[in-house]
Write a structure and sequence with these properties.
The complex is a heterodimer of chains A (about 300) and B (about 350).
Chain A: H1 2-5, H2 12-54, H3 72-79, H4 81-114, H5 117-132, H6 135-145, H7 151-158, H8 172-196, H9 201-208, H10 213-242, H11 245-250, H12 258-268, H13 272-297
Chain B: E1 12-21, E2 24-34, E3 39-43, H1 50-58, E4 65-70, E5 73-74, E6 85-88, H2 100-110, H3 115-128, H4 144-157, E7 162-166, H5 174-191, E8 195-199, H6 202-208, E9 211-216, E10 219-224, H7 226-231, H8 236-241, E11 246-253, E12 256-259, E13 276-282, E14 289-290, E15 300-309, E16 314-320, E17 323-329, E18 336-339
Helix pairs in contact in B: 2-3, 2-4, 3-4
The chains are: A mainly alpha (about 300), B alpha+beta (about 350).
Chain lengths: ~300, ~350
């Protein structure tokens, strides 16, 4: 064939140059990734592995740990009703707080999205407020809000809703309010970004075709924000599972969470392997929830342009 | 109840409809009727109030005053989903998470139709817009033109009293725009729906409409058939807005017409202008370039400044005394010539 007879015009130098360019192109992303990857491996990966290893060590007398291999600590978490209870309490608190947070955050994000643009900055500022103050300061704030002589009691009595001063301090309710307050901003911003990706004319289009506001919500908004809802839920769940100061400071003394147990085993009981086992269990539960959320949010088709 | 002379209720009737945003009047006291099966176009520059009017008919904006009637029923207090209309939006506004069939079925489901009937109607309208077989596609698997055809099908499927078109072709490129324009025309001829169409593109308005409403600064300048609008523009604005025109500022005094610098211009007008300053408008296509020998009713000796090639014709930029204007002519230009 005549085509085959045409000699390659490419000189050796040019082809070599091209090959090295291709090589560079292939490895550039990897090289750019390296610093972040190194930090993740050194500061997160290795400690996590160390902790995993720690959870199998022995605990003898009052020594922090004794190298060895045992599953006793995991066994203890399962068999000890106190520990088992703490696991359930933590999951329950995190679930309720995340559900409430997602619902509140959803309404708030939707409001921000629907309102005219000039409102937006103020609403976003409001949503950011919990992040401006540290968790400890926020706890002090709640301490002035919930007790018998606190702001809430005063407001309820003076408006005549209740007749006697009440204290909601050191209740599970207070702990839940505290958790919700902390995780709301994260949830809000995740959901707002999802709402911002939706063409607002879809609502007009829906109304135009005869659907009322509730139908539009169920048929249009909810399906389009499902992925965002699940992401926000996972985020809240991670946050509320792991946080330890707020439920401890606002909840009742008997409110044992996994965070509290890790702290106690680590610092008071000097039982590092058991504390590590708790930490690993925490990681496992969160991983599981994220996995479920992920699998729920995969859809038949990626419909975004 | 609103009825015309023959006793038929108009598809749409607007009475003294007004709308302002803050201090800006968007629509001033609009009165209009749309007959059954009529294709009415609101044509005007941006900010003329045409889109606001459409949105008030659709229920997305509330009029400050006046009333809107659809098929004899007053609707201006009703939300969009309670009005018997369907809008084709600029970018389609198809639901991205629903298939083509589900998009079209949406309005039918809201109207409480049964499943077999919905399926039948979806198939029917898809055939009408020539998209049979696209039922299971998602909007992001369609081209821009196909999306607009699905939007059209979705609106037609519910068989509304009026179809509202909100610049449906403006997001498409030229060849597609022309193609879809013919498609809409064909559908209107075949199905005879009543439609309100909003556009700033006069060729769209001319090609599609039974009547055109020319809007400017929130008010109506002229309502007429496309032919009437182009033959007898009612105002200076309409004359300028429809088609191209050149403007000659003139001064009339003592039965003579002069340019602004006093140079005499030999013009014979059907109605001689009263004393004062005037602007004379001419269609560039109605000016003919000719050699000096050809005699005409009105002729001006001009100098050719420069020439543009427009594909079909040449555009000559001309000067006669203090007057500057242009004309379009298919012939090759001549350095000194007369026009008629």
């Amino acid at each position: 064939m005549s085509l085959a007879a045409i000699p390659s015009r490419e000189t050796n130098a040019a082809s070599e140059g091209r090959r090295s360019a291709a090589l560079l192109e292939r490895f550039t992303p990897l090289m750019l990734l390296t610093p972040a990857l190194a930090i993740a491996v050194v500061f997160f990966g290795l400690p996590a592995l160390t902790m995993l290893r720690m959870s199998f060590n022995l605990h003898v007398d009052q020594r922090l740990f004794v190298p060895g291999l045992t599953f006793d600590h995991y066994g203890e978490i399962v068999s000890n009703p106190l520990f088992r209870g703490a696991v359930w309490t933590t999951i329950r608190l995190a679930l309720i707080a995340s559900l409430v947070t997602v619902m509140l955050g959803y309404c708030f994000a939707m409001l921000t999205w629907l309102k005219p643009r000039r409102w937006r900055l103020y609403l976003m500022g409001l949503a950011l407020a919990p992040m401006l103050v540290s968790e400890i300061s926020i706890i002090f704030g709640w301490w002035m809000f919930f007790p018998k002589n606190g702001l809430l009691s005063y407001a309820l009595v003076s408006t005549g809703i209740v007749h006697e001063k009440i204290s909601l301090m050191y209740t599970e309710f207070a702990a839940l309010v505290g958790l919700t307050y902390l995780s709301l901003p994260f949830c809000f911003f995740i959901l707002l970004s999802v709402f911002d990706g939706i063409d607002r004319r879809l609502l007009e289009s829906s109304a135009d075709l005869g659907a009322g506001p509730f139908t539009a919500f169920r048929e249009i908004l909810l399906p389009l924000t499902r992925g965002g809802v699940l992401a926000a839920f996972s985020q809240c769940f991670i946050w509320t599972m792991g946080t330890y100061a707020t439920p401890t400071a606002l909840g009742p003394d008997a409110l044992w969470t996994m965070g509290l147990l890790v702290q106690e085993q680590m610092l008071s009981k000097h039982n590092w392997p058991l504390a590590s086992a708790f930490a690993m269990l925490l990681v496992a539960i969160i991983a599981m929830v994220m996995f479920v959320a992920r699998s729920l949010s995969t859809r038949r088709i990626d419909y975004h342009d | 109840m609103i009825a015309d002379v023959s006793g038929h209720r108009p598809a749409l009737h607007l009475e003294n409809v007004r709308r302002r945003y803050g201090g800006i009047v968007a629509v001033r006291s609009l009165n209009l009727s749309l007959a059954q099966g009529e294709f009415l176009t609101f044509l005007g520059p941006s900010g003329s109030g045409k889109t606001t009017t459409l949105r008030m008919i659709g229920g997305f904006e509330q009029p400050d005053a006046g009333s809107i009637w659809i098929k004899g029923e007053r609707v201006d207090h009703l939300p969009p989903h309670r009005r018997d209309i369907a809008t084709i939006f600029q970018a389609g506004a198809l639901f991205p998470h629903k298939t083509v069939a589900e998009n079209i079925a949406y309005g039918l489901r809201m109207r409480g139709l049964q499943k077999p009937e919905i399926t039948a109607r979806v198939r029917e309208v898809l055939a009408v817009v020539r998209l049979s077989g696209f039922e299971e596609r998602y909007p992001n698997q369609l081209s821009g033109g196909q999306k607009q055809r699905v939007a059209l099908a979705r609106s037609m499927a519910v068989r509304p009293a009026i179809l509202l078109f909100d610049e449906p072709l403006s997001a498409l490129d030229l060849s597609l725009r022309l193609q879809l324009r013919s498609e809409i025309k064909r559908l209107h001829e075949e199905h005879g729906f009543s439609a309100i169409y909003v556009t700033h593109d006069q060729s769209e308005a001319m090609a599609l409409s039974s009547r055109i409403v020319i809007m400017n600064r929130g008010g109506i300048e002229q309502v007429d058939t496309p032919l009437g609008i182009s033959r007898a523009p009612a105002s200076e604005f309409v004359y300028n807005f429809i088609g191209e025109s050149c403007c000659m500022p003139l001064v009339a005094s003592g039965g003579e017409v002069r340019d602004r610098q006093g140079g005499a211009i030999d013009l014979k007008l059907h109605t001689p202008p009263r004393e004062g300053e005037w602007r004379l408008y001419l269609r560039p296509s109605r000016i003919k370039m000719a050699a000096a020998a050809e005699a005409c009713e009105n002729s001006l000796e001009v100098q050719v400044g420069f020439v543009e090639f427009l594909g079909e014709s040449y555009r000559y930029h001309l000067r006669a005394g203090a007057l500057e204007f242009f004309c379009d002519n298919p012939a090759p230009h001549m350095p000194r010539s007369e026009i008629a």
